[in-house]
Write a structure and sequence with these properties.
The protein has 13 helices and no strands. The radius of gyration is 19 Å and the shape is globular.
């Protein structure tokens, strides 16, 4: 599963194993008789909402160009994750980074790429286009797994992929004449990086992924700073972007992973669809950016395809479990 420039966990592996090893920060479970699933449900709702504010902040800063935005946002995310890792103790993180090997390096490059390309896309097309197109990432992963690992996807998954491809056409077609095609292509590249990373992460299930995310954010910040002009950005805009990175990457992922520790993956995945819904609405309400009609049409098809894919994954997992118990 990939969530717009933030998460790097394959949800199909999540529900049957504990996720403490990938949690950015340990959120304490409630004491007494209170059901932790209620907190987990709240976390599952809040996580995509924290991710959805990015468009508003990026549209509001005035002195930061696209590379500066990517740099300061990534810097904030890296700083927050490093602080959390320090609070948890650094020795296990160093051990896991060494154990990850070249797969960890490849994952770091993919995640760092999404941090940068996501922001560049936001500055080159509408927020709605970016969020809806990047939502197609989980649907690209089964095709890559089929091509690379020879894992044949469920029939419903193939139908979902076909629907998602159909949903891409009206979005991209409308962008060709509207000057947004480059941004749309960047959004699709982000989705592709996310899908590739999921395949890589499947080899690293036993390791703590948070150090890799921190290094990826630091790498993204370094590259963005080298290309942009970060010192020309106003102090107010720097503060806004650094806080955005900390809020979206560290807080958002912590909420997301906490939800996965206490809830099945399917409903958590469905709730992540709040991001492509809430993000364009926030930008429309705050800065007046109206989503193109073609984007709403295509985005609705993509969201429907993703829901179908989640259903297919759930059916496949239930079938596998039933076979294992007979």
């Amino acid at each position: 599963m990939y969530v717009t420039g933030h998460a790097m966990l394959p949800l199909d592996s999540a529900p049957n194993r504990p996720l403490d090893h990938i949690t950015a920060v340990q959120i304490p479970s409630p004491s007494g008789h209170r059901d932790p699933r209620l907190l987990a449900l709240a976390a599952a709702i809040l996580a995509p909402l924290t991710w959805s504010v990015g468009g508003v902040v990026m549209r509001s800063v005035e002195s930061a160009g696209p590379w500066d935005q990517a740099g300061w946002r990534s810097f904030g995310g890296a700083l927050a994750l490093l602080v959390l890792l320090a609070l948890r103790g650094g020795a296990p993180a160093i051990r896991d980074m060494r154990a990850a090997g070249w797969a960890g390096v490849a994952s770091m490059v993919c995640v760092g790429g999404t941090f940068v390309i996501h922001v560049l896309a936001m500055n080159a097309t509408s927020v709605a286009n970016v969020l809806f197109l990047q939502t197609a990432s989980p649907l690209l992963m089964p095709l890559l797994a089929w091509a690379v690992l020879r894992e044949r996807p469920h029939r419903l998954t193939l139908v979902a992929v076909a629907l998602a491809i159909a949903g891409l056409f009206p979005i991209v077609a409308a962008s060709v004449g509207g000057g947004r095609l480059a941004g749309d292509m960047l959004a699709l590249l982000t989705a592709t990086c996310g899908a590739i990373n999921v395949l890589i992460v499947r080899r690293l299930k036993a390791l703590d992924l948070v150090p890799l995310a921190a290094l990826a954010a630091a790498l993204a910040a370094a590259i963005s700073f080298a290309v942009g002009a970060p010192l020309d950005v106003s102090a107010v805009d720097i503060a806004a972007l650094v806080l955005l990175g900390a809020f979206q990457i560290a807080v958002g992922l912590s909420l997301f992973f906490f939800a996965l520790r206490h809830l099945p993956a399917a409903p958590v995945a469905l709730l992540t669809l709040l991001e492509p819904v809430a993000g364009p609405l926030l930008v429309w309400a705050v800065v007046g950016e109206v989503p193109p009609e073609a984007t709403l049409l295509g985005g609705s098809i993509i969201l429907g395809a993703l829901i179908l894919s989640i259903i297919a994954t759930t059916i496949g997992r239930s079938t596998s479990t039933a076979r294992a118990t007979t």
